[in-house]
Specification:
By secondary structure, this protein is mainly β. 0% of the residues lie in helices and 32% in strands. The protein is built from no helices and 8 strands. It has a 3-stranded antiparallel β-sheet, with no helix packed on it. A 3-stranded antiparallel β-sheet has the order 5-6-8, with no helix packed on it. The protein has a two-stranded antiparallel ribbon with strand order 2-3. A hairpin with a 2-residue loop joins strand 5 and strand 6. The protein starts with 8 loop residues before the first strand and ends in an 11-residue tail after the last strand.
Length: 90
């Protein structure tokens, strides 16, 4: 589930299994490895250095390219979350 249209990550609402094909927006992708509930996966390909956006807020920066369907976590993201970040005006 994507929390906001501009997000480049989606949240697993149930355990996802490696090789499972899931639908995101108007496309589908294959889950790269088992992903636990609540963890993030790339909703589309994310370039190294690109911001990770969740709930329309930047929460980190990709430290390596992340293909669609891959687990997005501490092994490929450097945190950039600031607790004082505010959402942009609608």
């Amino acid at each position: 589930m994507k929390l906001a249209p501009a997000d480049n990550v989606a949240i697993a609402l149930r355990p996802l299994r490696a090789g499972e094909v899931i639908a995101l927006d108007d496309a589908s992708c294959t889950v790269e490895r088992d992903v636990a509930v609540g963890h993030k996966i790339a909703a589309r390909a994310i370039a190294a250095g690109e911001r990770i956006v969740k709930y329309n807020c930047p929460i980190g920066v990709a430290t390596a390219p992340i293909p669609a369907g891959h687990h997005v976590h501490t092994h490929n993201v450097k945190s950039a979350y600031l607790p004082t970040y505010t959402l942009p005006a609608a």
